[in-house]
Amino acid sequence: MMSNPLPRVARRLAQRRWVMRTAPAVLRLERLIRRVSGGRKGVLDLAGLPSIEVTVPGRKTGIPRTTSLLYVPHGSDFIVLGSNWGSSRHPAWSANLRAAHTASVRHKGEQFLVAVREIDGAERKPIWDLAVEFWPGYAMEYELSGGRLFRIFELRRKSH
């Protein structure tokens, strides 16, 4: 049985600086694939990488905003990082998530609520190391950002 080579290829590509410049095209492709698949698939899914769609109210408007994100598995929880493709600015979704206590997650066709917790203090370094081991591109994105500390969140499924 042959394993899917796409996640390994994606991890290698994510460590290339030129890939960060493709962000606008990848985001447009993500929206198209989500629309065509009825929200079931996105670019990360096609590449064989773990992805979730996070919906959280905008911190200023209250309007629900949905973003597809790569996640780092952490037991049954999801770790997401606001790398913003190595930009010097935090992504808007991370400010919205920071302002929320809960969010809605869609994962593998299932929708559920999660508790949102920002990772900081002494737990930040081990979670950062776990994230970089899982997705080495984060280290390069950190350099590209000028050393901006990415916001890191744990999303923990709420019990029914």
From TrEMBL:
InterPro entries cross-referenced by the UniProt entry: F420H2_quin_Rdtase (IPR004378), Split_barrel_FMN-bd (IPR012349)
Catalytic reaction list: oxidized coenzyme F420-(gamma-L-Glu)(n) + a quinol + H(+) = reduced coenzyme F420-(gamma-L-Glu)(n) + a quinone
Protein's recorded name: Nitroreductase family deazaflavin-dependent oxidoreductase
Coiled-coil stretches noted in the UniProt entry, renumbered to this chain: none
Pfam families: F420H2_quin_red
Species of provenance: Nocardia beijingensis
Family listed: Belongs to the F420H(2)-dependent quinone reductase family.
